[in-house]
Amino acid sequence: MTVTLADVAARAQVSPATVSRVLNGNYPVAAATRERVLKAVDELDYVLNGPASALAAATSDLVGVLVNDIADPFFGIMASAVQSEIVGPGGRAGGERLAVVCNTGGSPERELTYLTLLQRQRAAAVVLTGGAIEDAAHVAAVASKLRRLAEAGTRVVLCGRPPVPDAGAVALTFDNRGGGRELTEHLLGLGHRRIGYVAGPEERTTTRDRLEGHREALAAAGVEESPGLVVHGSYDRAAGYAATRELLGRDSSLTAVVAANDTVALGACAALREAGLRIPEDVSVAGFDDLPFSVDAVPALTTVRLPLAEAAARAGRIAMGREAAPVGGVDVVGGELMVRGSTGVPRGV
Amino acid sequence: MTVTLADVAARAQVSPATVSRVLNGNYPVAAATRERVLKAVDELDYVLNGPASALAAATSDLVGVLVNDIADPFFGIMASAVQSEIVGPGGRAGGERLAVVCNTGGSPERELTYLTLLQRQRAAAVVLTGGAIEDAAHVAAVASKLRRLAEAGTRVVLCGRPPVPDAGAVALTFDNRGGGRELTEHLLGLGHRRIGYVAGPEERTTTRDRLEGHREALAAAGVEESPGLVVHGSYDRAAGYAATRELLGRDSSLTAVVAANDTVALGACAALREAGLRIPEDVSVAGFDDLPFSVDAVPALTTVRLPLAEAAARAGRIAMGREAAPVGGVDVVGGELMVRGSTGVPRGV
DNA sequence: TTGAAAGCGGTACCAA
DNA sequence: TTGGTACCGCTTTCAA
Q1: Which residue's C-alpha is at the least distance from the C1' of D2?
Q2: Sign of CA pseudo-dihedral A159, A162, A166, A172
Q3: What residues does the HTH lacI-type domain cover (chains A, B) (predicted)?
């Protein structure tokens, strides 16, 4: 039926072992032999059997990328950044890794399920992107899963969430708190005093950190936070819309809105426009992430600029162990805001 | 090291074969035995070895989803729709399929590369979403790849692109032409006569079909297409922005713009706003897809509404072989589906 | 209903 | 530099 390595070996008049060596390119093979093998591969249209290879080598070329919401461009950028950085070590035409993008939808159960699925596949690496859920039981469950994965040789990368102790994971964190602070400082600088805040879901690290930054800025400026001016919701457009309507209902005198991320900001803008308010003439809006499409919808955005795609790519590179120099504190970015690896030093490389 | 099926067998005092049967649930096993096995699995924290399983069974539980641009929410919606529909037949806790979202970036080479990678993994199914490239050589190459995949037992689904002969593929197509026509008809109905058209990339099925629909509508209304009022570009925001600026430069008197998809429409809106034009007071904008976030940015959008997520889910279900009966708006005709967004009435194939 | 054992297609160690 | 060959961990007849 399907062509196997043995078929190729027969055709090239060599042993299966030799074919394997040629294909993996990690062993010396005479040029002439190699030619013959490659020719046979080509003629037979041979395609390596991934599962067999993974079984024998005890590792696969799959890389899992967990995202909270695949319909959110933010995660799309992250995913494609990682994807573009996980070329295998062999450099061969066929020696590539396959990125498996898993959509958790922000659900703790699905997060664990996917982790198990990736463990089952003996994934080469797993990249967890976006904020983490803060529920203690879940955090413990994830930590234990990650530990097992690491034990089995899977490289673990955390991109945008707090480090996990003893998981041998590379952690790349964003300065959510600082970002949140700057965003609000920016609005304060424009003279705004009544600022609504559309926060992310409760129990999420990013939600809390950004909100803390916001409050920090208010406090530093001596502005008292009006009660009811913070509304929580999921990180999507609908939630941003709903939350903003809610804010307007509570206090129609606000002059600025901070959105916990750009997708949310889009929803906020929609609600404001619908209410007959103009942006930024009547109300300023500031979003958090660095999504290209929101630049003009969210004028204040430019004050905070996280090169997330680059950060994700870098995390992927670190996970694959082909990082040149240590990440160090800040050199990842040239922008206004810093992205810093939590430990500052890549671990487990 | 890692726990194997044999370990579980030993602990449960049964043979490996029995454990396998319990796990797969496709064989009669005494209730008591099953309990014992499940208990052992639990105690040992056993996780099936995917590659080994795939090798022995000659098929894996991976489902590949090819998308043109993972940062485009359109594909995110498609991907998550497929993902939510590919639960395995077993229904077991561990019997799930894993969706592999592959980002081709619209590149022919990467499309083929991913197809090979999935072939190597012995994927259970492959779903190709979005418009296809029309280059003859590439079409042939893809067709041949798909045929091989099908031969090897991989189910192939085409979602949003033309059927491929002899590939044994399920094809789900959208009425791009009809949609394009209606969009323009809508604008014509509003009284517009000078309509700019921001088209997708050349050599793409969706680009051509939608554009044909546009021209059809113009012709039917007796409106002559002004030269230079069609500009091509990729399906992203930046292209929409650039193309619209270009259009404005060529003819500042246009009163409406059709964008070949929603992401492009967002860019178009940005360019118009930047030019000091108001939407829809000065210029109407119509996008094509059915993305939730663009509803207000593109007021005319509601004239065309394709239930894409549902369609993708349906395609996934069909591929997995558990399709029941056709529902309204979607019809199954000889393995091919036609989704007609605007009227909701299925068209013949 | 359960067990024994022969593969599935590669990989990598040991020799030659 | 190349060949021989034990596995890798699971599935699936074939018997019992």
Answers
A1: A18
A2: positive
A3: 3-57
Per-residue pLDDT at A340: 33
The answer to whether some atom of strand D lies closer than 7 Å to the beta carbon of B219 is no
Q: Are A148 and A206 found together in one domain?
A: no
Give residue for tokens 């001016």. Answer: A229
Say which residue the tokens 């990013």 belong to: A206
Give the HSE-up count for residue A272: Cα atoms under 13 Å, Cβ half-sphere. 29
Which residues from B are below 8 Å from A83, CB to CB?
70, 103
Which residue is nearest to the C1' sugar atom of C6, using CA? Answer: B56
Amino acid, single-letter form, for residue B87:
V
* pLDDT at residue number A204: 94
Helices (H), chain B: 5-12, 16-24, 31-44, 50-57, 73-85, 108-120, 136-151, 176-189, 205-220, 237-250, 262-274, 308-319
Residue B216's domain comprises 176-306
Chain A interface, best mutation among B100, B236, B274, by max A CB count within 10 A = B100
How many structural domains is chain B composed of? 2
Is it the case that residue B290 has pLDDT exceeding 70?
A: no
Whether B39 maps to a domain, the answer reads yes
Residue A325 pLDDT grade (very low, low, confident, very high; cuts 50, 70, 90): very low
- Per-residue tokens: A321: 């162990």
What CATH number has the domain bearing residue A180? 3.40.50.2300
Identify whether residues B92 and B218 lie together within a single domain.
no
Q: Phi/psi at B90 (nearest 5 deg)? A: -60, -40
Domain match, B156 and B276 both: no
Which is higher by pLDDT, A306 or A136?
A136
Instruction: Give the count of alpha carbons within 13 A of A348, CB side only.
Output: 24
Taking the Cβ of residue B50 and every Cβ of chain A, the question of whether any pair is shorter than 8 Å is answered with: yes
Residue B338 contacts A, CB cutoff 8 Å: no
Instruction: Choose between B19 and B336: higher pLDDT.
Output: B19
Reported as half-sphere exposure (CB side, CA atoms, 13 A), residue B18 has a value of 21
Examine the domain organization and report whether A124 and A33 are in the same domain: yes
Is residue B164 less than 8 Å (CB to CB) from chain A?
no
Task: Average the pLDDT over A147-159 and give the result.
Answer: 89
| pLDDT score, position A9 | 93
Q: Tell whether B70 lies on the interface with A, counting CB pairs under 8 A.
A: yes
